[in-house]
Amino acid sequence: MTNDVENLTHAMLRRMDAKLDRIIEDVTDLKVRVTGLEENYSVVSRRLDRIEGRLARIEKRLDLVGGLDVMS
Question: What is the tally of helices (H) and strands (E) in the chain?
Fold first, then answer.
């Protein structure tokens, strides 16, 4: 009887360990993907900042300042 309980406990622990390994792999994958998204977001953000600056200069040169205030 004791061996049955021990075998059942070991089997359950092995299954839990396997599930935990899968969860760890999934979390690691998610961390890599989120890091990639953050890097891409920063690139896009920098490009948008430059475009806003360029647009503001164009508006100023064309005397369009006063309608749309892009920089605020």
Answer: 1, 0
Whether 72 is in a domain gets the answer no
Question: Which sign, positive or negative, has the C-alpha torsion 18, 19, 22, 28?
Answer: negative
Is 69 inside a domain boundary?
A: no
Residues 70 and 55: beta-carbon distance below 8 Å: yes
Tens digits of per-residue pLDDT, 12-26?
A: 999 999 999 999 999
How far is the CA of 57 from the CAs of 49, 64, 72, in angstroms?
13, 10, 14
The reported pTM is: 0.60
Range of the domain at 47: 1-64
Residue at 67: amino acid letter: G
Question: Do 52 and 70 meet the contact criterion of CB atoms below 8 Å apart?
Answer: yes
